[in-house]
Automatic annotation (TrEMBL):
InterPro entries (UniProt xref): Gfo/Idh/MocA-like_OxRdtase_N, GFO_IDH_MocA-like_dom, NAD(P)-bd_dom_sf
Domain named GFO/IDH/MocA-like oxidoreductase: residues: 126-246
Gfo/Idh/MocA-like oxidoreductase N-terminal domain sequence ranges: 2-118
Protein name according to UniProt: Gfo/Idh/MocA family oxidoreductase
Classification via Gene3D superfamilies: Dihydrodipicolinate Reductase, domain 2, NAD(P)-binding Rossmann-like Domain
Pfam families xrefs: GFO_IDH_MocA, GFO_IDH_MocA_C3
Amino acid sequence: MRLGLIGLGRIGAFHADTLSALDAVSSLVVTDAVPAAAAAIAARLPVEVSDSPEELLAAGVDGVVIAAATDAHPELLLAAAAAGLPVFCEKPVARTMDEGLRVARRVGDTGVPVQIGYPRRFDAGFAAARAAVAAGELGRLHTVRSTTLDPAPPPAAYVAVSGGIFRDCAVHDFDAVRWVTGREVVEVYATGSAIGDAVFAGSGDVATAATVLTLDDETVAVVSNTRYNPRGYDVRLELHGTADSIAVGLEPKLPLRSVEPGATFPDAEPHAFFMDRFAAAFRAELAAFTEVVAGTRPSPCTVEDAMETGWVAEAATRSLAEHRPVRLDDVRRPL
């Protein structure tokens, strides 16, 4: 099949490599607002370059991958859907939930399949955890702990427009909790600290956060996030039930140092960033999209899924600001 890729920044360039290596992809058309970025990709990969998204959409592609900046997501999603092209779009659907609702409603009216990028759904460990929960291996689930610790803060310009740590970082934990447990969040309580670069406090954001999620079966999930984990990129998930406890991410590259006498675990070079921790998951995610384009599977992460996770982030943001628990019913609006 012939695919288009819009946006060739850090993640877009990574996707270009992945898409070019997939057997299902016979040709790849790319474009970026910065022509030099497209030229750099074309210098090392067998791709075609379009001068604009409009030109790319008219280039006979079978589907489109959107890896452009968040502000461009709504316009590009709607344009691809209007052209009848299946779309993969990195999260979020839009910067604000109001705009996300508008996009979700209009995309829904087209009937075009859309897949939103949440790669933990394609990680072998997270998938195994989901299967264990679904099979009842843990008994009655009562506690979940989800962790995302970044090795260093993103650029100040990104922090200023990201929407905050809950919307751009913790959403991956929120989605993982929902997907692995098969439950929905009903209430959120969030707290945090802006210790670190002054850009966080200046943007009304925090650099370290903790969020308690109450699920619809009364399971309690605790989500931990920080922008400062100098040992590396730490993503883990623990699930505790009445019959068993399991964990994702307890492997040799875990960026954590044990101080137990004689302990050597973990004993490999720590994960440095999300693109090495989830390299296989990104490949599986885009391979799944080729199946969506081919019409052989439904979207594994729909706009509706992404919006529900977005409402959890919205509730966490409000909870932090108002220093109180927030129920999802108080923020969620129907599609």
